Write the structure tokens for this entry.
Amino acid sequence: MMALAPLTSDANMAPGLEAFGFEAPLRQRELLPAWQQWSTAGPSRRVLAPSIRHIRERRALPTTIAKRRARYAALIEAEARRQGVDPELVHAVIRAESSYRPRAQSPAGARGLMQLMPATASRFGVTDCWSPAQNIRGGVSYLRFLIERFEGELSLVLAAYNAGEGAVAKHGNRIPPYRETRQYVRRVLGYLGKT
């Protein structure tokens, strides 16, 4: 273990980092006695010990999502209008699925902005799930199909987008009793301001 360098004798000058042995890693219990010795050496030298702030992970800021949304807004709105789907519904689905991240991938294998599964992508003619234009086109086509299939019943459309139209049909054209699907429907409706 490295010995600490002697403290500076100048009463008005704080010791350099070398005085506390920062050229080699120190454990906090080794650093604290040296700091206490230096800070209590005299009235002119009294200084509070440094505090270590804990850095917490921050959630994505709404401004970050707004910036990503703006990047794809024209593409989303053009495709939604072309297929006769409400652009705000597409925005709400994308926000819930990927937070507008084009490289998002779920553990189940869903990919891209609208989190298309490979089979769904293939079904709607998407050859590159990572292409934002193709992903949005395929996702909007799927939404359009579900809107027609469930006669515009938005909660069933969203449940089917999350769990598959087969799961909704299997449960008597009701939202399946899956916690994830129920939360998903509430979240998207919340983004649309319909809860």
User: Anything to note?
Assistant: The helical segments are 28-39, 62-83, 87-98, 118-123, 132-149, 154-163, 165-170, 179-191.
